[in-house]
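Section 3.1: Structural characterization of target chains.
Under the original work plan, the team committed to producing a structural model for every single-chain target entering the pipeline before any wet-lab resources were allocated. The record below documents one such target. The sequence was received from the expression subgroup and is listed exactly as submitted; it comprises 300 residues.
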Amino acid sequence: MNYQGIYTPAITPLTADGAIDQNAFAEVLEYLIETKVHGIIVAATTGEYYAHTAQERFDLAKQAKEVIGSRVPLVLGTGAIRTEDAVEYAKVAKEIQADGILVTIPPYALPTQQETAIHALTVDQAANLPVMFYNYPARMGVSMGQEFWDAVFAQSKNFVAVKESSGDMYQLHLLARNYPALNISCGWDDQALEFFAWGAKSWVCAGSNFVPREHVALYEACVIEKDFDKGRKIMTAMLPLMDFLETGHFIQTIKAGVELNGLKAGSVRAPLQGLAEDKKAQLAVIVKQLKDDVAAITAK
């Protein structure tokens, strides 16, 4: 398990009454496999894990494994406020034979670096699977720093990757320089080109739920072909979408994008509300232009 390529944090489709739409979820997973993403993450932020019951998360994990099988790697999110709950999600990942787990800092508690390391090691022990850390201080309140990295690497070989979502380029530089064995994954979309330039071989990108081929094209240009001129052109074409995603209503926009492809996504769970119709229309224009532009670039 090398955590390389485009990893999609899959959405969780909902029915009109707000229940999880299992048939639509299976169709979303099949679409992602068909479009050749390199891995799928279930129970990440884009999947609205924070708004699910524990039983819903268990059921989604099991369904995802049944649908995906061994066709692409399946990574299960273990995010939770309590370490004890994160451990239970890690146990499920082991039970269903997921390929890896995503480990976050528990939100709200503001743990120290050492406390965060203890949390991560405890979750790791429950699953004994390759771990991708998720460093997202804007959501969690604190960041994974050098004290944390040194502590976890000294005690487990399962820690192999990080989705770096701080937005701080110095953090990227530090990770690339000080931890060369760590597989760095871009978690800040408009910095994808810079991540690839610094040696990242992975991108965990919510937008790949509905424009996966375009995300794969950027990865292939930069990582496989080493053609950063081509990569800059693709990135330029993608920036309007990235800018739109950062205007608010992130998950709602991802779900609206999924429906542009004829798949069912449904609304979002409270406290979030659905995307306004005028925003959906704007998104449709942006996505069409993006697809046209990337198709022209890759054709050349």
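The beta strands are 5-9, 39-42, 74-77, 100-104, 131-135, 159-164, 183-186, 202-204.
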